[in-house]
């Protein structure tokens, strides 16, 4: 009590000194709070640097060198690999742009279906009674939890030309069997079907969460005005879930750009090289031809393309918020 009275007396006699002390105490408390908060972020920053930032920087470094996997010397070549990729008639030019064209084809074929069917499934599941809604959510989401190898085994048995389930079913209908994995355009159809079955559950769950956020009052008001189901969908549902649709559109596009497992395990890039996507070419260049420098240059360019798509996502989402 005595110290407290002395402190109060000093504060009355020297108000500016008291305010300075209080500011210093607040500053120390603020610094301690920031330091404590930063400790919670450090594990993430360490993992980010170790598994993402350092590999990216090292990949860029490799792309600027003649980095043969079996050689001990890696001379600096600057942007020679990048120039070769954009020089018509070179091996790297055909390897990169043929793979990019195959990848773009898959993006064009798969992304609209991933969005449309994902939204349709979410509407159907949401319309079910509550008691069985969770069961169907789980049923449609289960394939997404499977590994790529399991998915490939299932669809290899489905698409096998001689003894596959689909061709056996077509034979019972007196229809000719289709070369699902060895002919055009059947190989693309097979890849898109396998991808839809494997990944559409994720988009469905995202859309279901978005649909559950739409206020029921809007639908009730529309019913009073005499709006039918289609009018409610166009005027209420689509505008309400538009930000989520943009998110699903961009993430599905990025995922389709990164396609590798489906063509590698199902078609092996065939028929010919028609389904040999860019990631297959990059890995072949790196680990079959042992040319990590040029493979890293192609990977960097592919990453820049994906970053451009991410910028589009940000711009569209940011514009929507404003």
From TrEMBL:
Keywords: Cell membrane, Membrane, Transmembrane, Transmembrane helix, Transport. It comes from the Bacteria. GO terms for biological process: transmembrane transport. Coiled coil: none annotated. It is a multi-pass membrane protein. GO terms for cellular component: plasma membrane. The chain crosses the membrane at residues 39-61, 106-128, 140-166, 186-208, 241-261, 295-316. SUPFAM superfamilies: MetI-like (SSF161098). It is found in: Cell membrane. InterPro entries: ABC_transporter_permease, MetI-like, MetI-like_sf. The keyword Cytoplasm does not apply. Gene3D superfamilies: MetI-like. Residues 100-313 form the ABC transmembrane type-1 domain. Belongs to the binding-protein-dependent transport system permease family. This is Sugar ABC transporter permease.
């Amino acid at each position: 009590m005595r110290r407290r009275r002395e402190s109060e007396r000093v504060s009355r006699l020297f108000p500016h000194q008291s305010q300075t002390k209080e500011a210093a105490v607040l500053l120390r408390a603020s610094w301690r709070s920031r330091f404590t908060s930063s400790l919670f972020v450090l594990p993430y920053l360490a993992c980010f640097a170790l598994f993402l930032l350092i590999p990216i920087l090292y990949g860029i470094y490799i792309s600027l060198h003649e980095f043969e996997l079996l050689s001990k010397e890696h001379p600096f070549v600057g942007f020679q690999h990048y120039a070769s990729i954009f020089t018509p008639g070179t091996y790297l030019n055909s390897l990169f742009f043929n793979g990019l064209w195959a990848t773009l084809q898959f993006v064009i074929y798969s992304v609209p279906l991933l969005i449309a069917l994902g939204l349709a499934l979410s509407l159907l599941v949401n319309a079910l009674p509550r008691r069985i809604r969770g069961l169907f959510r789980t049923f449609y989401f289960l394939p997404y939890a499977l590994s790529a190898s399991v998915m490939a085994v299932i669809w290899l048995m489905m698409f096998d030309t001689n003894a596959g389930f689909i061709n056996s079913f077509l034979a019972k209908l007196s229809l000719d069997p289709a070369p699902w994995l060895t002919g055009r355009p059947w190989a693309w159809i097979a890849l898109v079907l396998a991808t839809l079955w494997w990944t559409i559950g994720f988009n469905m769950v995202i859309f279901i969460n978005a649909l559950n956020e739409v206020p029921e009052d809007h639908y009730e008001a529309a019913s009073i005005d005499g709006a039918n189901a289609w009018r409610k969908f166009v005027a209420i549902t689509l505008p309400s879930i538009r930000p989520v649709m943009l998110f699903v559109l961009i993430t599905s596009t990025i995922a389709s750009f990164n396609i590798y497992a489906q063509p590698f395990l199902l078609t092996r890039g065939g028929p010919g090289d028609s389904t040999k996507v860019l990631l297959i070419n990059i890995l072949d260049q790196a680990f079959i031809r042992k040319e990590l420098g040029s493979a890293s240059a192609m990977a960097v360019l592919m990453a820049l393309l994906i970053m451009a798509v991410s910028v589009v996502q940000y711009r569209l989402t940011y514009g929507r918020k404003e």
